[in-house]
Specification:
alpha+beta, 32% helix, five-stranded antiparallel beta sheet, globular, 93 residues
């Protein structure tokens, strides 16, 4: 059993060191927050946890803003905006 635990622990530590930047979300800046709050309000929503997802992929090559648990009417929604604050999606949570 000991011979299985040690290599597994080494692999887990190595994976953590090799992939530290997989989650590239960052808080929004004060300037971004003002514009993003206006975009959320224009979508008929308020509040939510705001962050910028810097993961670049084919769908969002410049990253995207995410607003989790925004209140839209009486229901929570997850909102996604492009870097120019144009809404990309609005999904019920």
């Amino acid at each position: 059993m000991r011979s299985v635990i040690a290599p597994t622990a080494v692999l887990l530590v190595a994976a953590g060191l090799a992939f530290p930047a997989l989650g590239k979300d960052r808080p929004v800046t004060d300037q971004e927050r003002v514009t993003l709050e206006a975009a959320v309000k224009a979508a008929g929503c308020t509040g939510g946890k705001m962050e910028f997802d810097d993961d670049k992929d084919a769908t969002h090559p410049a990253g995207k803003f995410e607003v989790d648990d925004a209140m839209c009417g009486n229901q929570k929604h997850d909102l996604v905006f492009d870097p120019d604050f144009k809404m990309l999606s609005k999904k019920p949570d």
